[in-house]
Design a protein that fits this description.
The chain has five helices and 58 strands. By secondary structure, it is mainly beta. Strands 1, 3, 4, 6, 11, 12, 13 and 15 form an eight-stranded antiparallel sheet that branches. Strands 2-5-14-7-8-9-10 form a seven-stranded antiparallel sheet, with no helix packed on it. Strands 25, 26, 28, 30, 31, 33 and 36 form a seven-stranded antiparallel sheet that branches. The longest helix has 11 residues, at about 5-15.
């Protein structure tokens, strides 16, 4: 007998512990009117979800299916569920689809429910459910499917849970631990779920007894069906379901049998198991004699697309396999498999399974260095420090500009550096005195790599660039880790310095020392170039770079003392690379009339300007101009007309090097909204200035859109909801009664906006709807990055917001590129959640409404050079102000330094000095 049927038959044949009581009851006639045999449970409420709605007949076009087949407690609709074709059980042709997510009004059906079972603790409820979108197991999902009672105050719930990287069915009741079953939730597959109280609660999945629920409890008042929005512990996850055939029933005193659930028996070939991952999947199908599978009739769809199996074999059960090439795995995501087949008698069957591929970055094999081109006798890294006196807003965009010299001269101590880089043959594990020791205890000082500079007191406003080549000894998945305070970006490319490299991972913002684990797949063993950049705004600073080994231990990159540690080498090939682009990939506020510019710098390979082509929203063509100076090509494409405000545009770059290798890159950018066009502004950086220590969530959560599936904009922010725990910010718990009345410091933040805006509103999303939610704010403004803050507005929310937003209007518009916000009260202090309560302060997200301030750039002066005798005079028009003349000995430049002796926009230098240097004019 097949395994699956054997298990079910054992359940059906197992004598009930009430069998003698049942016989006695029948003899005495004390259970009158109950049919003997199957279906001995007594339905009290039975919802076929639409097919009993008068005047609809079976399959009728119900628009609001609410009527009960049994019972008179008809349902109330919440949100806008869909009545869709598709059946879950015999006699059903339609079901209800509930779609969830940010910006969607929570959808469910519910009714007041007053039910006292005839026998105390002898009752249950069941449903058929199919998942159309799965919650994310990495976000601790607890998506409710059906619950009896108030989900916020204690209820008996059928739900999903995360277990060992899978989504499984589970359940719990008030005061009872959450219990998980063994059955995995599969995309697109109908499953029967039931909770039965029979002198003890059990959960059944497709008739299998899978988990305990609790004692023999009677139902709480109130029933809600299909409440699938993420609960407070779901960390931003959500699920979409189709649900049908919901029943609430009594159980007779002689006990419950699985056959009472009326689950159709398995009558033909059936799926025993399915597994899947980045390299394909396997489905095992068992025969069910006398019905046997006809392999020639197999059909597969993956995410709706037809797919041909790689192999179909029958060593016993039939194995259906699909394999991906080792260098082309499935991208990260959830894959739904629809499988159809017939038995040898011609009977058709369908089923569904799914699998999930965890997030990872594919390391392109093109980036693999040629054998022998990396010098393995020179282990380690090249590290370039850069420090400025002020201004670092904990922004990676700003950090890249800082490393390029845009935000001022480099004040780091470069003593011992070669061309701006320190040779570092050790490990990456740095921290300053106030930084945190994270995974490792080497805690090397940043002063070993030139930070702070000799004129600076600390590690504030610092950045570093780390260049290296990492060796991966085998094909497969690797986990790289960066623990940083504050931000970082890890990338890889044919040349690690290429601005169009593949980003492996990043953290863009302010945080205390925390891990980011980045999973990569290496399709070809060998050595690959990598670049790591890091920044510190103010205060504590630390950086660790490591890998996570197969046994879960961590090993610092380039630590030869640890078996399995990834080794690093500092000397290797240096091909031509894209050294600058504008607009940058992902730019969200580009000028509408800006030209497209690209710089390509020669290395060991070279690029001819005649090979460069650029495209804007179309095929690449010859650029408007392409010139080459000192080994650097500057190519420019001038759009024929200004781009539309708010439009998203695609740039294509094509070029070839002298080895005949061709390169094609494409990236997108967005044009800023026109002045006068209101936009929703997300701050580019945030720093906590005051307030108690964090309660577990980083302050960057307030500006990183982590609580939204799609970031909101000016058109939909009012209806875009924000999920709660894990995506919010909150202080640590303070002593009762209230955070503020207990004398704790008011939380204060400095936020940078990236450019100037005329601000009209503060927009905030709440903190889960409880009385810890911040409600009152003092807002100050700065047009100079926070030096100083002026003006003051006091605004407050009208109620507890939960996942909703509110736009708090200022009394006038304020021009600013930085804002300081101080939280001065919470919901408890306002009396929203009970006067005097609210022992913490939390918030979901902070944004602003405003319009961009268009600042016209100063006219670009012409730098002229005239020679007289043994001198060269460099000059530019005396009427032009605000420019500094700078020089560098080489291009690309690691450092630009001001030219001394400039007076009235002119300086005279010896020919020997001028001829060996490069010069530029820079406007701050």
């Amino acid at each position: 007998m097949p395994t699956m049927l054997l298990r079910q038959h054992l359940i059906l044949m197992n004598p009930s512990r009430y069998s003698h009581l049942r016989l006695l009851a029948l003899l005495l006639g004390c259970w009158v009117g109950v049919a003997i045999g199957q279906a001995e449970i007594t339905p009290v409420l039975d919802y076929r979800l639409g097919e009993d709605d008068s005047p609809n007949t079976l399959g009728g076009p119900a628009t609001d299916p609410t009527r009960a087949r049994l019972g008179d407690q008809h349902l109330t609709r919440r949100g806008s569920p869909q009545y869709v074709p598709g059946y879950a059980a015999i006699g059903s042709t339609h079901a209800i689809r509930l779609t969830n997510g940010p910006g969607i009004v929570p959808q469910s059906y519910g009714t007041d429910f007053d039910f006292d079972p005839t026998e105390s603790g002898q009752w249950g409820f069941s449903c058929w459910v199919k998942f159309d979108a799965l919650p994310d197991p990495d976000k601790a999902p607890e998506a409710a499917i059906v619950h009896i009672g108030d989900i916020n105050a204690g209820s008996i719930i059928l739900q999903t849970l995360a277990r060992d990287g899978r989504i499984v069915f589970g359940t719990h009741a008030p005061g009872i631990a959450i219990n998980a079953g063994e059955t995995e939730v599969h995309l697109g597959r109908w499953t029967h779920l039931a909770v039965v109280f029979d002198n003890g609660g059990r959960m059944y999945v497709d008739g299998y007894d899978e988990a305990a629920v609790g004692g023999g409890q009677n139902p709480p008042a109130g029933i809600t069906l299909g409440a699938i929005r993420s609960t407070a512990t779901s960390f931003g996850s959500h699920a979409n379901i189709t649900i049908d055939q919901v029943r609430v029933f009594e159980v007779p005193p002689w006990g419950f049998q699985v056959s009472d659930l009326e689950i159709p028996p398995v009558t033909g070939p059936y799926i025993v198991s399915s597994t899947g991952g980045p390299f394909g999947f396997t489905i095992e199908i068992a025969d069910n004699f006398p019905a046997t599978l006809d392999p020639a009739t197999l059909s597969l769809k993956v995410n709706g697309a037809d797919l041909t199996p790689t192999s179909v074999t029958k060593p016993g059960n039939t194995l259906v396999e699909y394999q991906r090439p080792v260098d082309n795995p499935f991208p990260a995501g959830v894959y739904g498999i629809e499988i159809g087949y017939r038995d040898t008698g011609g009977q058709s069957y369908t089923d569904a399974r799914s699998f999930r591929v965890r997030s990872y970055t594919l390391l392109p094999a093109d980036f693999l260095t040629a054998a022998g081109t990396v010098n393995k006798t020179q282990p380690g890294f090249r590290i370039r420090p850069h420090q400025v006196a002020a201004g670092q807003p904990n922004s990676l965009k700003w950090t890249e500009e800082q490393l390029a010299g845009v935000h001022g001269p480099n004040l780091a101590n470069l003593t011992g550096a070669v061309e701006g880089y320190f040779v570092w043959d050790s490990i990456i594990d740095f921290k300053n005195e106030t930084g945190q020791t994270a995974n490792f205890f080497n805690d090397l000082p940043f002063s070993a790599i030139g930070i702070p500079g000799t004129t600076l007191a600390n590690e504030d406003n610092a950045a570093i660039e780390v260049l290296t080549f990492l060796e991966f000894p085998a094909v497969g998945f690797y986990s790289l880790g960066v623990n940083s305070d504050d931000g970082f970006r890890l990338s890889t490319g044919l040349n690690a310095r290429d601005r169009l490299s593949v980003v492996v991972g990043e953290y863009d913002g302010d945080r205390l020392a925390a891990d980011s684990i980045l999973r990569i797949y290496v399709p070809q063993a060998g050595i690959y170039p990598f670049r790591l950049i890091w920044e510190n705004g103010t205060g504590p600073a630390s950086l660790e770079w490591f890998s996570v080994l197969e046994d879960g231990t961590r090993a610092l990159i380039n630590d030869p003392a640890v078996p399995g540690a990834i080794l690093a080498y500092r000397a290797g090939p240096n091909p031509a690379y894209v050294s600058a682009v504008s607009p940058i990939p992902g730019e969200t506020a580009a000028r509408a009339d800006a030209a497209i510019t690209v710089e390509i710098t020669d290395g060991e390979t070279t690029v001819a300007e005649t090979s460069v082509q650029l495209g804007l929203n179309g095929p690449a063509v010859a650029p408007t101009s392409a010139t080459k100076t000192g080994g650097v090509i500057t190519a420019t494409l001038v759009p024929p007309a200004a781009l539309a405000a708010g439009s998203t545009n695609t740039i294509t770059l094509v070029y070839a090097d002298n080895t005949g290798k061709n390169f094609t890159h494409a990236w997108t950018f967005r044009v800023a909204e026109a002045a006068g066009g209101v936009q929703l502004i997300t701050p580019s950086g945030i720093t906590q200035k005051a307030g108690d220590t964090l309660g577990g969530f980083p302050v960057a959560n307030l500006i990183n859109n982590s609580g939204f599936s799609t970031p909101p904009d000016a058109g939909n922010y009012a209806t875009t909801s924000h999920t709660a725990s894990g995506n919010t910010w909150v202080t640590a718990t303070a002593a009762n009664p209230n955070y503020f009345t207990a004398g704790h410091p008011a939380p204060q933040f400095d936020l940078t906006l990236g450019s100037l805006f005329d601000l009209s509103h503060l927009v905030v999303w709440g903190y889960g709807g409880n009385n810890n939610e911040a409600t009152d704010f003092t807002v100050e403004f700065s047009t100079d990055g926070g030096a100083p803050f002026t003006g003051s507005e006091s605004v407050q929310t009208s109620a507890l917001l939960g996942g909703n937003s509110e736009a708090l209007e200022f009394t006038q518009k304020h021009t600013a590129n930085a804002v300081r916000i101080t939280m001065t009260n919470n919901g408890g202090g306002r009396g929203f959640g009970g006067a005097g309560t609210g022992d913490r302060v939390g918030l979901g997200e902070i944004k602003f409404l405003g319009t961009a301030v268009v600042v016209e750039p100063p006219a670009r002066p012409t730098l002229s050079a005239t020679r007289a005798g043994g001198n060269v005079t460099l000059s530019w028009p005396a009427s032009v102000t605000g420019f500094t003349l700078e020089t560098s000995e080489r291009l690309p430049a690691t450092t630009w330094t001001p030219v001394p002796g400039v007076a009235n926009n002119s300086v005279t230098l010896p020919t020997s000095t001028a001829a060996s240097s490069f010069y530029r004019l820079r406007s701050p």
